[in-house]
TrEMBL record:
Membrane-traversing stretches: 82-101
Protein name from the UniProt record: Zinc ribbon domain-containing protein
Superkingdom, natural source: Bacteria
Keywords, ordered alphabetically: Membrane, Transmembrane, Transmembrane helix
Amino acid sequence: MLTHLICDYCSHRTPAAESRCGHCGAPLSGVARSLEATRSLESDVGGVVRGAVALSGAAETVATEVATASAEGTSLVRQWQAVAAALAALVAIGALVVHWVSGAAPALAPPGPAGVGALPANLRSASCRTVGAVDQCVIAPDDPLLAGGLVAGRELPFSRQVLDPSRSAEQLRNWRGQQPSVVVDGAVFAAVGPAATVWFADIRTGLCIETGTFVDRAAARTFLVRSGLAG
């Protein structure tokens, strides 16, 4: 801190508190410079303060934006978590519905496997192919079932299918209406048709079999017994 000022005119030392030289009365330029410096310092300080205030405001704005972005990000994450949870719930419900339907629905007996299972062992070796809902089968000419000339050395074709109760009952009415030679009539129906064919129906399973023609009705009856269809 300055204690004295030197006069620019007479070089006399005057206490710093004085505004004029005590020797010649000239104004002391140091006072003016000090005042100017003070004003400059005040201006600089004011600028620094204003800058600090502006910086503080900017920092506050940035902090607010960061907090907002963070909140929005958190909200977005929560929304995606909610969507994922909803999808998982839908998948679980779908699985339960499928399980319930598959468990509650009655199993429909397909023509092939159910027919084979219900057939006597002697007929299960027949060669078959499925056409629609019907299995078209053939017994070879040299099969022991046809021994004795039952079909005059030819192969024997037959069809098998599994019908629902209403269609099975309709099929039986149709066969009975043609006045066949009935061999068995009960839970199992077996008969020889007018054209020397074999008709068979298992009312319990819906299995129905109809063969091609034999040489005569006696041969057809022999086949019924030999194959096990007549019990």
